[in-house]
Design the sequence.
């Protein structure tokens, strides 16, 4: 498998040095070789097509984690419909853009940005817990704001489920009403990971936030 570093390396020696540096600072590579605080090498997957994509979901966590994982252990998030995944992705991307300060531009933030996303597909042949938002205790798991503070209750629930050997959780999408999402806690249960559509998403600033336009580049 090649590496994107090939595009910026001027020589084989430079490429080799860059690969070593990337390995020393890449959470996925470190996790695959040594394990991380929240996930061991025995849980990650090896020797299957796109194993690096699955492992990346569980090792690149972010400082605050996400709705059903903390910073020590990632998870595989998915939705039954592409539109739901796009609602989640565009919300978080627009929010990150809004946090960037660019003096001199209207509203002092980026006026536009174009990003490319790959839609990764997977199958699941296991049982998941189902979160019922009608139960008062679980309603706090689906608070839309403020991020990341609104993750506090859901991360606690996820940690308890993981300790109970849960496979994952089906829950209502926070960003698309009426849709459902899945969070899988176990890398080995992400079956047949494969690339779906490649999408180009263009974000344009407005007075109150960002609007976006999606273009499918290929299936």
Sequence:
């Amino acid at each position: 498998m090649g590496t994107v570093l090939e595009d910026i390396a001027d020589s084989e020696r430079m490429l080799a040095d860059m690969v070593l540096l990337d390995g020393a600072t890449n959470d996925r590579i470190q996790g695959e070789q040594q394990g991380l605080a929240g996930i061991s090498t025995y849980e990650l997957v090896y020797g299957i097509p796109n194993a690096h994509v699955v492992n990346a979901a569980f090792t690149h966590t972010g400082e605050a984690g996400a709705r059903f994982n903390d910073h020590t252990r990632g998870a595989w998030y998915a939705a039954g419909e592409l539109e739901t995944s796009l609602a989640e992705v565009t919300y978080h991307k627009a929010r990150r853009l809004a946090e960037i300060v660019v003096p001199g531009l209207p509203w002092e933030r980026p006026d536009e940005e174009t990003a490319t996303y790959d839609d990764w597909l997977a199958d699941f042949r296991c049982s998941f817990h189902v979160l019922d938002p009608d139960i008062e205790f679980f309603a706090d798991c689906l608070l839309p704001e403020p991020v990341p503070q609104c993750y506090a209750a859901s991360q606690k629930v996820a940690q308890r489920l993981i300790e109970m050997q849960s496979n994952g959780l089906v829950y209502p999408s926070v960003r698309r009403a009426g849709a459902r999402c899945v969070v899988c806690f176990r890398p080995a249960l992400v079956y047949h990971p494969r690339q779906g559509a490649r999408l180009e998403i263009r974000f344009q600033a407005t007075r109150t936030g960002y609007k976006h336009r999606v273009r499918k580049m290929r299936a």
Remarks:
- DSSP finds six helices and seven strands in the chain.
- The first strand starts at residue 76 and ends at 79.
- The chain has a mean pLDDT of 90.
